[in-house]
Amino acid sequence: MRRYNILLAQPVTVSHALLAAANSVWLWTTLVAGGPPLSRYDSPPHITMGSSSSNNNKYNSSSSSSNNNRYSSSNNNRYSSSNNNSSNSTTNVNGNGNGPPLSRIDSLGSSNNNNRPKSNGNTILNNPTLNPWNDSLNKSNGNAMLNNFDHLSILGSSSSSSKSNGNTILNNPNLNPWNLRPYSARFFEILEKRKSLPVWQQKDDFFQVLHSNQTIILVGETGSGKTTQIPQFVLEAVELETADKRKKMMVACTQPRRVAAMFVSRRVAEEMDVTLGEEVGYSIQFEDCSSSKTILKEAMTDPLLERYKVIILDEAHERTLATDVLFGLLKEVLRNRPDLKLVVMSATLEAEKFQDYFSGAPLMKVPGRLHPVEIFYTQEPERDYLDAAIRTVVQIHLCEPAGDILVFLTGEEEIEDACRKINKDVANLGDQVGPVKVVPLYSTLPPAMQQKIFEPAPPPSKEGGPAGRKIVVSTNIAESSLTIDGIVYVIDPGFAKQKVYNPRVRVESLLVSPISKASAHQRAGRAGRTQPGKCFRLYTEKSFNNDLVPQTYPEILRSNLANTVLTLKKLGIDDLVQFDFMDPPAPETLMRALEVLNYLGALDDGGNLTKLGTIMSEFPLDPQMAKMLVVSPEFNCSNEILSISAMLSVPNCFLRPREAQEAADEAKARFGHIDGDHLTLLNVYHAFKQNQEDTNWCYENFINFRAMKSAENVRMQLERIMVRFNLKCCSTNFNSRDYYINIRKAMLAGYFTQVAHLERTGHYRTVKDNQVVHLHPSNCLDHKPEWVIYNEYVLTSRNFIRTVTDIRGEWLVDISPHYYDLTNFPNCEAKRVLEKLYKKREKDKEESRNKS
């Protein structure tokens, strides 16, 4: 059986334990020599401002340079070492709990790393090609040894050199210690680049701080190499600590974004010269490149995470919902596991806040490799930031010297539209400009296409012609999670999609919102990665100073917490008010979450997890969808609900290109179902399967092939969970009149809290919350039903409900009478209709009793 050295996994946790968050991604660095492999559960630099050398009169350059030294390397020498091999190097740590620095005497028994230890009767492997981290050697006790590690007490215990049990562990200096295969030539090329990274220069200092403290905060600036190197450094330490044990300890490193987890895993695999999916793997929601065991279950049997030696939280400054819950969980685990180490890695944002939260943990700074970045603002606000971004790209390509461009936009549709327009506009310029390679980047893009961001710019079209240029159009994933070499110009419209939640009306939605000053600094810093750069902000300097908040609000303060509460309950955390959140959510938000889970049957009236809630928590879905799936066998339609759930969990399957909108609308209408959008999605999935998943069929019908393949993958994974809990996969006969009725009833059983009623005035109101809403123009209904369930509430200039399906009022009182209890119902038209339905039901019951 293949054993993993590094595994990258996703959200719902470090086991379940390191939580469950629908959009988070976990990077797992594991060393599992003897135990079973882990598996799946299933994203501000230094800025200088000066005058513009561009012919672009649209922008005026700011002359402010007050923050010029904020990120200079002179401020980051606290942990630098003039001689990386010095036996007397010490590290001044800003924090409590400092132990003595670890010297070469501690680690090798010699204060001079140039003195090779002697072998006890056999040849020592003194060829540095064997060692991916350093060129030192361990002692051999009777045999040639694997000399990968020169710190033998890194994690606070006194390990001695591992002994071979009478056999040669490795007697070929050209073999990779992780997979016992010969090193490739590429390995040595990458190794030289790794050695030039700022974090490599402070490797010894990192080991010393890690040795002396249980928790450390590591601030790494742009280009420092912390994301790829620190997990490998820690893995080295863990291998030393457990080198002579059958069951190896593991190291987990979390990433808050799916794309980052995939990219980092590929890069780490390449640097270690191993195969992705074998020694290195990743696991994100609905995609797996690891093994078959579910990480989610770990915390249930291992509440103290006993199998883990070190946990690394990368990009902690992003403060995702998952990361914030992890903070609280790990803080408690650390109190009970003195041997567990935690490394919190961040950009230069909020480092002091992390220190305070973790009881004065030491702060270690690693300088980046930043160059000056000129900032340009617009003189007037832009009405259409997408159009302004595209025009700015063309201006840069026309007027500025060679260098790649990074454009920040808010989502897939916007990005794909921009890519098409940029290609078209540049093509219209003819031979006066060089060729361009326009590359999109967003989370749902296939891995092979995501990898294109690292490809070089195209060469000139002809010898001596204008240089080619790469243009990356990305979501905010490129702010800090990924580093793209060659970027010289950044275009920042100042917006990003953010989740917002109003607990009073129980509405959560993704809104295009202004970014924070911190995000603006991060974006600008992308331009100074390899050479001096320029950042074009498509908003005024006054707007930057007055309108942008200093930091992005933590996601936990603006999210529906139902899924989070369900996870915490599953982990046995009952007192949510006392849970140690870094930024506690509003009590009203917690109460709303508890209320919804109680209505869904996941919690009983005492707030305790029910059997139904336990099963629901195993699905990587929101609680309403999980409930719909779990109860679907009762309605004899679980196969169809599986397909609908999968389609709802992937990007929109309908393509609508601007140049063929009418044809695309006609194609969508062919799949339409008169009862609503959920059943339309089911029709699409069935047609996709009936046509053998043919790409040409998708093209002809304006169907997103990638979305359909993702839906198929999601469906298989959800089905595996259902089988694990003995939930029957069944269907009503397609020719039965109850086929679609049963499906709609099953959907209502999960989404009965998301119902809207058609008023006599002609508009809809959400039930209980009384919010006026409109059916989204994309709906497939050919009529206005009296009652609808909806999947999404969209906040724009008007409030829309999207993905809607027709239901019957009598189903509400039959399936969810506990929710539609009229004693606690607001006075509205829906209440009066429900009163009539309750009276009718009582009358029908009375007539039935009289007949019997």
From TrEMBL:
Pfam families noted in UniProt: AAA_22 (PF13401), HA2_C (PF21010), Helicase_C (PF00271), OB_NTP_bind (PF07717), WHD_HA2 (PF04408)
Biased segments, Polar residues type: 123-137
MF term (GO), any: RNA helicase activity
UniProt superkingdom: Eukaryota
InterPro entries, sorted: AAA_22, DEAD-box_helicase_OB_fold, DHX15_DEXHc, HA2_WH, Helicase-assoc_dom, Helicase_ATP-bd, Helicase_C-like, P-loop_NTPase
UniProt domain Helicase ATP-binding: residue ranges: 207-367
Keywords annotated in UniProt: ATP-binding, Helicase, Hydrolase, mRNA processing, mRNA splicing, Nucleotide-binding
Catalytic activity: ATP + H2O = ADP + phosphate + H(+)
Domain Helicase C-terminal residues, every copy: 392-572
GO biological process: one example: RNA splicing
Region (Disordered): 44-137
Low complexity compositional bias, start-end: 51-95, 110-122
Coiled-coil region: none
Signal peptide feature range: none
EC number: 3.6.4.13
PANTHER family xrefs: ATP-DEPENDENT RNA HELICASE (PTHR18934), ATP-DEPENDENT RNA HELICASE DHX15 HOMOLOG (PTHR18934:SF109)
Family indicated by similarity: Belongs to the DEAD box helicase family. DEAH subfamily.
Name the record gives this protein: RNA helicase
Species name: Saponaria officinalis
Lineage of source species: Eukaryota, Viridiplantae, Streptophyta, Embryophyta, Tracheophyta
